[in-house]
Write a structure and sequence with these properties.
The strands form 7 sheets. The chain has a 5-stranded mixed beta sheet with strand order 1-18-17-16-15, with no helix packed on it. Strands 2-29-28-27 form a 4-stranded antiparallel beta sheet, with no helix packed on it. With 343 residues, it is mainly β. The two termini are 32 Å apart. The protein has strands at 30-31, 61-64, 72-75, 80-85, 90-94, 101-106, 115-116, 122-127, 132-137, 143-147, 152-157, 163-167, 172-177, 180-185, 191-197, 200-205, 210-215, 220-226, 231-238, 241-246, 251-256, 261-267, 272-278, 283-288, 293-298, 305-311, 316-321, 328-332, 337-341. 0% of the residues lie in helices and 48% in strands.
Amino acid sequence: MTSPRLPRRTLVAGLPAVALAGCSAGDGAQTSAAPGSSPEDDLGGAEPAEAPEPSADPAGIVAEAGYAAEGLVYDPPTGLLAVGVRRPDRVLVLDPESLVVRRSVQVAGTVRHLGRTGRGGTVLVPNEADDTLLEVDLRTGGTRSTPVGHVPHDAAGTTDGELLVADEFGGSLTVVRDGEVVHTFEDLEQPGGVVAAGRLALVVDVGAFTVTSYDLDRLERVARLPAGDGPTHGVLPAEGRLAVSDTRGERLLLYSVDPLEQVGEIALPGSPYGLAGDTEAGLAWVTLTALNEVVGVDATGDTPREVARHPTVRQPNTVAAEPGSSTIWVASRTDGVVQRIPR
């Protein structure tokens, strides 16, 4: 088993220091911290690299989507693909094979990342501009909006019906059920990614460089561990496994979910950022924004290994995967297109 590497925090000249809020461990919580670290050492949340012009033709097919295409979700129950675009902000529902737009749903706010409910059929839009979570029915285009915390960045749904919202600049995780907030965890610094794993919520804190698990039945924190030098997102690539993109540290971190422990990692130079999980194949798909590439990583064991690599469209910030098929989709925030890479 690989022991978790502690964050390397170095103050960069000319950058303002960001204060790291202190968190108490709480009853039964496991906490690991970087010895000798201080608030002045924190660099803040990592960001994807600014992608260069592609040096290779993108694999598969490419189709126009819309300005700043970024959020991307494949929904197995409906067999539909959703992408978020801007100017105006809307969610486009696409045919996953032809990439033809079947439906356009306008959003009053900001579309960036998209999530999916645990039962499927509904896309989640964390609306950073007006602090709401929007649910979009893929079949009908119907919507429901719920006020959540400040600047919601990511969202995920449990199979039992809860919706989990990472409020990036609210320092909180909001739990929503049936359009109502039922609980708020307020012990985070800058939550950027959230994953639902059974009755656990897993949160990637991009400001504190940690990953935290919460019990949704007891409504309490279970564990908190280091998550590299600049983590951004998380995904479930296999049963009982959490993969986290350490964007600044240029690696993919692999954790067991229950108990939360780091079990492995793989170096992925090129600013790994966007993630998609294929639990049927045991794969984590990772976009490398500095290289315009996407990499498939086998995450079934404790030693993750690369099994596929494809050239992508420029600025591949997001990726989606069809479970068990090895078919993936990539969105280009720079060129406003969606790419389909078949098996």
